[in-house]
Amino acid sequence: MKFYPVFNRFLMKSFFHEALSFLEYAAGRCVVDNTNLAVLHGTGKEAIFHPEIIQFAKQFGFTWLAHEKGHANRKAGEERSFWTLETNFFPGRTFKNMTDLNRQVFVWSMERYAKRPQSRTRLIPVDLFEKEKPYLIKIPPALPAPSREIVRMTDQNGFVAVNANYFWIPGKTRPEVKIIEYEKKIILCPNDGDRIEYDLPDWLVRNAKFSPKGVDTNPYGEPRNLKRTSDEEEQKLRSMGQTTSEYIDFVKSYESGIRCKPKFIRSLYSLTKVMALPLWGIVIERAVKYRLTSIESLIRVSHRALTDSGASSVDWPCGDLFEKDYESRPAYREGCFSAENPLAQHEEHIDKKEEIT
Questions:
Q1: Is residue 353 part of a domain?
Q2: Is residue 42 located within the same domain as residue 100?
Q3: Of 137-146, 301-310, 336-345, where does the model show the most confidence?
Q4: CA-to-CA distance for 266 and 251, rounded, in angstroms?
Q5: What is the pLDDT of residues 10-51, one digit of tens each?
Q6: Residue finishing a domain among 113, 138, 163
Q7: Positive or negative CA dihedral for 172, 177, 178, 179?
Q8: Do 72 and 119 have their domain in common?
């Protein structure tokens, strides 16, 4: 048993390879439903399987068979296993990520499920498997794991994007890079350098950058499409009170309909830097009450509050706005939570431009 957040033909082959390599035996025929991951067209006995899937099965010595339409009971035993999983494995269980989840379900399936008597027959799966081995196909050892080749462009700082993460490659040029992807690792094959191997992170890891251990990459270089998070801004906003925290929960919920939530939270934090705390309290209370979902609406609410009270922004100063020693302010030291562009890059660009002219 194994869980995937997505499932495609490549992951299907990877799952079969991992399972059969562990069992070391395979049956002569594999019955599947009429999934388009395996079936090119047709159903049942008339089904034509993908050549890629047929070639994959040959190395293990088995053939594919799609059950007829309406004959779902051909795989009723496996459907019952899903029910056992949902009612026996999941209740009361916690896990950190997909890797931890798959580790727990592997231990549960091999140590508990496979070694206990079944409810009706009272037969033990592990004992049955030992009796069936003489009738199964012995799998050759060390079969190559499924892989696929993809091509990616590297950005100006040497990063290439794979599965929503960024991996650094050495070299002075930034050409197209061939990537050999396995289920748990990737191999980058640049034209002007040695191959570099990376272990893929957990499925839930996104927008992270990776580099080889012991290699000093460009300290100012960031992936071109690296998305900024709003964790620090969110933490600052939540510290401003319960009402602000409730509004952040609404913004992050599906009900709000806000598409780019990190950008909205960063804009919301920027708004607090130019708004007095009493005025912010009025604005955020109305934002929670009326479920406001745009920065423009919050600004209009602040203008209306100032107009109704007859006050101005001078009457409600923003805390340390008029301090002379501005460099000691927390907002100045935080630096808007973002790294500034190095001046050396701009100077180098200017020098090159002057040489051309």
A1: no
A2: yes
A3: 137-146
A4: 12
A5: 999 999 999 999 999 999 999 888 889 999 999 888 999 999
A6: 138
A7: positive
A8: yes
Q: Are residues 236 and 300 in the same domain?
A: yes
Structure confidence at residue 75 (pLDDT): 63
End-to-end, the C-alpha distance of the chain in Å comes to 66
- b/e burial code for range 207-222 (CB count within 10 A of at least 16 → b): eebbbeeeeebeeebe
Residues 134 and 74 in one domain: yes
Residue in this structure with the two tokens 């070639």, named with its chain if needed: 55
Lowest-confidence region among 97-101, 104-108, 203-207, 311-315: 311-315
d(CA 155, CA 324): 42
Categorize the per-residue pLDDT at 323 as very low, low, confident or very high, splitting at 50, 70 and 90: very low
Query: What radius of gyration do the chain's Cα atoms show?
Result: 29
Please indicate, yes or no, whether residues 104 and 183 belong to a single structural domain of this protein.
no
The answer to whether 69 touches 34, Cβ cutoff 8 Å, is: yes
Q: Are the C-beta atoms of residues 318 and 273 closer than 8 Å to each other? A: yes
What does 291-322 look like in DSSP terms, one character per residue? Answer: T---HHHHHHHHHHHHHHHT--TTTS--TTTT
Domain check: are 205 and 242 in the same one?
A: no
Please list, in sequence order, all residues whose beta carbon lies within 8 angstroms of the beta carbon of residue 53, skipping any fewer than 6 positions away.
9, 13, 37, 38, 64
User: What percent of the chain is predicted at pLDDT more than 70?
Assistant: 80
Kindly list the distances between the CA atom of residue 133 and the CA atoms of 32, 126, 137, 219, in Å, as whole numbers in the listed order.
22, 11, 8, 57
Q: Does any domain span residue 116?
A: yes
Count structural domains, the chain: 3
Q: Are residues 190 and 249 in the same domain?
A: no
Question: Token digits for 128?
Answer: 């049955």
Does 177 share its domain with 252?
no
Q: How many CB atoms lie under 10 A from the CB of residue 322?
A: 8
Q: Which residue range(s) make up the domain with 73?
A: 9-138
pLDDT in tens, 261-310: 888 998 999 898 888 888 899 999 999 999 999 999 999 998 888 888 76
Whether 203 maps to a domain, the answer reads yes
- CA nearest 259: which of 301, 208, 293, 296? 293
Give dist(CA 57, CA 185) in Å, integer: 23
Whether 196 is covered by a domain: the verdict is yes
